[in-house]
Write a structure and sequence with these properties.
Strand order of the largest sheet: 4-3-2-1-5-6
Number of helices: 18
Helix content: 25-40%
Distance between the termini: 54 Å
Radius of gyration: 25 Å
Structural class: alpha+beta
Largest sheet: 6 strands, mixed
Strand content: 15-25%
Shape: globular
């Protein structure tokens, strides 16, 4: 891999010289600004060897750097050639800051306008300007000229997602959003986010691994009609009747001309500057459209699930909890041999989920990590790194399922055999943070950034922390990562609202030794207690139903309130999941949910 990557960087530099460029930016992105990409868009992985879901590479004539966030600081060093690439922290040293320091006057930095949003382009232009350099769009992408074995674009069929799961018709969604456009004097909204398109039209696809996304573009007009731009090979016979006469299905190749026509008509067109490829608003503006920057109108309605979607999520988590408990019961019997590998356990858990009703896929590749591999936040077991679950090992398993009625995501950390006092201390502090967040009540208008410290405090008290967010949004049979809702240290202005589903997943990682993460999904609900202040207050309902490992809990670190929460949670797990599992799993579950004194 290292030799291949070195050759590819050399070849890219040659291509840049031929195009009169001094450097090129390679983000982990596609034209839809997806987090998880189809194989044909994995340019960053092809060039560097890094396979994480977030990162950016910059190749200059004399140096090359790759930027990743805290989830991937260990992974990137194990996957890329450090003789070729300088690994940098994406948050501590953002790409624009680095560029403004290393670019030279007269340099010409290339970028693909399909892979960067307008907001990103503005930041890059500013960085180049500070250095006396220029930022230039490149079409086609120079990597595509070098990638001989590039996979073909995906062409999975687009299918209806029935109202029994969505709770609201596409027509009703379009009507409501079109009224919003009319009130704001906007003629048409451009939709490029695949999950927004899937939500708005009540459709699903299979163009991205583990996420039922149909890749395409859409235009929503002020009168409630819409155009849906798809590869025509994806269109099924049932799609047109499902969408109805108000939705025109067009070939994706027609999009450029349609944008040109909107421009010539002088339309006011809404584009999200943080989620739309910069190519689109640039083309609109070039032909005369007035581009209005604003949030994707589907963003908040999609995030705030309706009653049908929330009930579906609860049902999906019941079945998912049964699958995970079946796995953990098996693990408690088989792990004592010391012969199980990370791949063995991953395979067994995946099979448990496949047997559940309404299951369609995993929501992401299962993270099955023993010992030091658990400290790699997004670890994937492969032949070189795969470890056995030996006695004394701390085992972390992060997994989820895609069901027709909901998307799940859960992490549990398990002691294989005996554990050390340090293991129990760190586990219990992570659990204390998890419980504190699960019990939080907060007034309307509170953001995830304001709640993040609640989960970190037990670790902060002894000088420890974790380098990832505490919670991400989750879709409804859509993305396991969904915005705009999240719980992390900063940069969030979106208030949490009823119906939003998020993860609650504090952790602790000791590089080279072990990792601990405890994750449940929660839904924002109205708080039951009347504060008497006239304000709306919200709380979290935990919908994941799987016990925590009692052998890793130091009971002396838990206060009475925390013990009460844990006992109530375990009683609920036993009451709901117990009747869904076989007798051997039920026997294990009864022991695993025993009341703590």
């Amino acid at each position: 891999m290292a030799i291949a990557c070195e050759e590819r960087v050399h070849a890219l530099r040659g291509q840049l010289v031929r195009q009169g460029l001094s450097g090129f930016i390679v983000p982990h992105a596609d034209e839809y600004q997806n987090e998880y990409l189809p194989a044909c868009a994995e340019r960053l992985a092809w060039l560097t060897g890094f396979t994480g879901s977030a990162g950016t590479a910059v190749v200059l004539s004399e140096q090359a750097a790759i930027f990743v966030d805290g989830r991937y600081t260990l992974q990137v060093r194990s996957q890329v050639d450090v003789q070729v690439w300088s690994a940098r922290h994406l948050i501590e040293e953002p790409v624009p800051s680095w560029l403004s320091a290393v670019l030279r006057p007269g340099d010409k930095l290339g970028y693909d306008p399909w892979l960067h949003t307008p907001q990103e382009v503005r930041q890059l232009k500013e960085a180049c300007s500070k250095a006396g350099a220029a930022l230039l769009p490149c079409e086609p992408n120079p990597i595509d000229a070098l990638w001989d074995s590039r996979p073909a674009p995906p062409a999975a069929k687009v299918v209806p997602h029935e109202i029994v799961y969505t709770g609201t018709s596409s027509e009703d969604k379009r009507y409501k959003l079109s009224r919003q456009l009319k009130n704001e004097n906007i003629g048409v909204a451009v939709l490029t986010a695949p999950d927004s398109i899937a939500w708005l039209f009540n459709i699903r696809g299979g163009d991205v691994e583990h996420t039922p996304l149909p890749l395409g573009f859409a235009l929503l007009y002020q009168d409630g009609t819409a155009s849906l731009f798809l590869d025509t090979n994806k269109v099924t016979a049932v799609l047109k009747p499902h969408l109805g006469p108000a939705v025109r299905i067009q070939s994706v190749t027609e999009l450029p001309d349609t944008l040109e026509q909107l421009g010539k008509a002088g339309e006011r067109v809404l584009c999200d500057p943080n989620r739309t490829a910069s190519w689109i608003p640039e083309r609109l503006a070039r032909f005369g459209a007035l581009v209005i920057e604003g949030d994707d109108p589907c963003l908040l309605p999609k995030a705030c699930k309706n009653v049908v979607e929330i009930n579906g999520a609860r049902e999906a988590h019941r079945r998912d909890g049964a699958a995970v408990c079946e796995f953990l019961a098996w693990l408690s019997r088989e792990a004592r041999t010391g012969q199980l590998s990370e791949r063995d356990t991953q395979s067994y858990l995946d099979d448990c989920r496949r047997r559940q009703p309404l299951w369609k896929d995993m929501s992401f590749p299962t993270i099955s990590a023993a010992g030091p591999n658990g400290a790699i936040v997004h670890y994937r077991a492969d032949e070189e790194q795969c470890r056995r679950l030996e006695p004394g090992t701390v085992y972390l398993v992060d997994s989820g399922g895609q069901y027709l009625d909901g998307t799940t995501d859960i992490t549990r950390t398990i002691a294989i055999g005996s554990s050390t006092p340090e293991h129990r201390d760190r586990y219990t502090r992570v659990l204390k943070g998890h419980i504190a967040l699960a019990m939080a009540t907060f007034p309307k208008g509170t953001t995830g950034a304001q709640l993040d410290t609640v989960a970190r405090r037990p670790l902060w008290e002894v000088g420890l922390d974790y380098d990832h967010g505490t919670g991400h949004g989750v879709g409804s049979y859509l993305g396991v990562h969904e915005g705009p809702q999240r719980i992390s240290k900063g940069g969030q202005t979106v208030a949490l609202q009823p119906g939003m589903i998020l993860s609650n997943e504090p952790g602790y990682y000791k590089s080279g030794e072990y990792g601990i993460r405890l994750e449940n999904l929660v839904v924002v609900i109205p708080a039951t207690t009347d504060r008497g202040d006239g304000r709306e207050w919200f709380a979290f309902e935990t919908i994941t139903l799987v016990p925590f490992d009692a052998s890793l809990i130091d009971e002396t670190l838990l206060n009475a309130t925390e013990k009460d929460w844990l006992n109530a949670y375990h009683a609920r797990v036993w009451a709901v999941i117990g009747p869904l599992v076989d007798s051997s799993t039920a026997a294990w579950l009864e022991r695993a949910t025993e009341r703590m004194p």
